[in-house]
Amino acid sequence: MKILDWYILKRYLITFLMMLLLFIPIGITVNLAEKIGKILENEVPFPEVAMFYLDFTIYFAHLLFPLFLFLSVIFFTSKLANNTEVVAFLSSGVSFSRFLRPYMIGATIVAGLALLLGMYLAPEASKGFNDFDYKYFKKNKKAQETGSVYRQITDHDFIYVSSFDAKNKMGQNFTLEHIVDNRLEYKMSARNIRYIEKDSVYRMIDYVKRTIGKDNDILESERRKDTVFSFDLDDLTPLEYIAETLTYGDLNRFIEKEKQRGSSNIGRYELVKYRKWSLPVSVYILTIIAVAVSSIKRRGGMGVNLAFGICIAMVFVFFDKIFGVMAEQSDFSPLVAVWFPNIIFGVLAAYLLYHAKR
């Protein structure tokens, strides 16, 4: 039986690799055709373009991992079925569960690769991909501007800005309140605040500070004031893709820090965290579905299996995106949003596997 295991396992891994090698160049070509004008216009150095497309490859390979895997398993298992190899295996006394074992071994290898990518490699690729995208393709857009921000930055200090531009490190209508034992001790305000990198100071325009006294308040005002704060202004409102650029350990620490600050984007960050674990699990689920669907020889041949498989894959992606948006835009649990598609398709996998065994 080891010959059968090696035969299927090699077909599993080689077909998956070939699927990646087939579709990734197509993705690069389409993206390059779309952005070649801006690359030439901005005179982007070739090494930067090459590094961008290396990051692009890792980023989208990880993003589309389940789809590539699903189609590759359906493709080569359908070929086995059309050549009546599956019938020969099962007719020799091999149970369907035993026939499935090399697929599970292959799924374990691919799931381990997906886990490694999600924890360490994909975050680095995502950072390079997004940084390059904003530097050359979105530099004239206000994609890095946010709405109002109110956060606790220390045990006693609270900060507010009505809008924040991460690209220029500037906040509008700045306020800082220092509160001890539920008592306001002083309050700073400015029309805007900006971090001056070359001087390592914060510059406030139309600065006003009111210190609360027992009898009289002390009022201080200046047209422009440069000072130093213990917080990082650009860290107060991270870019929307920041969670995708952090390794798993850094992401956990980042989420805890954001919870203490009262960030409104916790759902988005936790969604990225939970997906690092749900993706490897989906590899097993989609492998079982693909084998159950394509191991039967059909009158329409491989095309019917591929069409059916593509429909299932699209539904899976649809569920994943819908619940992801719900978690990002509402109070819907990120944990439920990430695992619900796996649960639904896990039930479907069990149902299809039961009927395939029969």
Summarize the entry for a quick read.
The protein has 358 residues and is α+β, with helices and mostly antiparallel strands.
Describe this protein with a few key phrases.
2 domains; elongated; 358 residues; alpha+beta; 17% strand; 8-stranded antiparallel sheet; 10 helices; 63% helix
Largest sheet: 8 strands, antiparallel
**Mean model confidence by pLDDT:** 83
Number of strands: 8
What is the C-alpha radius of gyration, as a whole number of Å?
Answer: 27 Å
Order of helices and strands: HHHHHEEEEEEEEHHHHH
- How many independent structural domains? 2
Give an account of the 3D structure.
α3 runs parallel beside α8, α3 packs antiparallel against α9 and α5 crosses α8. The mean pLDDT is 83. This protein is of the alpha+beta class and 358 residues long. It has two domains: 232 residues, no CATH class; 93 residues, no CATH class. Strands 1, 2, 3, 4, 5, 6, 7 and 8 form an eight-stranded antiparallel sheet that branches. 63% of the residues lie in helices and 17% in strands. The longest helix has 42 residues. It starts with a helix and ends with a helix.
